[in-house]
# Entry
Amino acid sequence: MLPRQRVETTLRHHEPDLVPWGEHSIDYNIYEMTLGRESWVHAKIKETRGLWDGRRDEIVEGYKRDVPELVRALGMDIVTVGMNPPAGHHPSALERVDEVTYRDGHGNIFRVSSATEQLMPYKINTEGYEPPTVGQLQEQIERLESEPPAKPEDSCWEVMRHVVSEMKETHWINTCAGGLGFPAIGPTDEIRYMNMALLEPEVLSKWTELQAKRLMCQLPWLAEEGVDSVMPCADLGSSTGLFGQPSLLAQHVQPWWAEYNRRAHELGLKVLKHCCGRIWEALPLICDAGFDGYEGIQASGGMDMAELKAKFGDRLTLWGGVWNEHLILGTPEDIDEDARYAIGHGAPGGGFIYGATHSLAMGTKPENLEEMQRARERYGTYPIRVPEVAAR
# Structure
C-alpha cells in the first residue's frame, strides 16, 4: 500500500498492510540529526530571531525542502504542514533584557525555555484587563457573520501548497489548527481559570460561540488547499485530570465540536483531535461530537492504550504509543516496550496510528528515534503478532 492508503484504511477501522506512522509536530533537532544539516523547521527561538532578522524567505524555503525529506527519510505515512508567514513578513525584534529574557511594547516579559528553546510568556501585563460582556461578544459574532474574514494571501500557503503538490499522491496531508477547549477567558492562566469558575454561563457560552465560528471560517480554505485532515489542538487537562468540570464541556463546547466536525466532514476533511492530559471524562463527549481520531495520548498521565482500545476503539482512531519521556530520558529497550504495548493493543482491527505520545521533541536521543523506527517495522506488519506486554 501507499502511505496515504494505509491511513485511509486504518481510519475506516480496517487493517492496512503496515501500521501507519505520523507526528503532529517535529522539532528542528530531529530534522538536523536525521538529515545531517541545520534546519529552520520548528526551530524555536532560532526561527523567531530569523524572522526578526528578515530571513522569512530563507525560512520558508527551508520548510519546503526539509518537511518532505524528513517524512521520507523516516518512512512516515503522514505529513503535518501548516501555513507560513506572508511575503515581506519582518516583525520588529523584542527588546532584549538579558540572554534569555525579552520585553514587548506592552510591558509583557518573555523568556526562552531551557527545555524547549521556545520563547514563552513569563510575566503578562494585566493592568486594565476586564472580561468581555455578553453584549460585546454578541457584537463580535454579528460582525463575523456579516463580514467573514478573507482567506489569507497566497504567500501564506506557500509551504502547504508545495507539500500538497509534491506528496499528496503518496502521503496523507494533515494540518494543525486552533482548537476549542474549556471556555477559559483572559490573558493569563490564573485569570482564565478564575473566569471559567466565576463568569456568568451566558458569557462563557457567547465566548465559545465566537471562537467556534472563527475556527469554522478556516475549514473551506484548508479543504481548498488539498489537505486530508485537520487537527484542532486544544488541551483539556493536565497529567492528573481535566482543567474543569466535564459539565462545562458538555454545556458550552461539545455542540460546537459537533458543528465543526459536521462542516469539516461535508468538505471531505477528517478531524483528528490533539489533546494532552488525563482526559477520560471528556472522551465520551469527544466521541459523541464525531471526531475521527484522538492524538496526543498521554500515556504518562494514565491514558492506557489497551483500555482506550477496549472502550473507544470502535469510535476513534487512536494515534500515539511511544512515550515522550522515554524518547528523551529512556533507552532503546524502553522504546521497544512502548511500541510492543501500543501496537499490540491498539493496532488489531485497524483504527491505530503509530507515533509519540506528544511529538518528536527537543532532547530526543538519536538511538531512541532509530529504535522507534525499527520497532514500527518489527511489530507493525499486519496481521499483528506482538509478544505480550504486561499492563502499564
Summary: The chain has a mean pLDDT of 97.
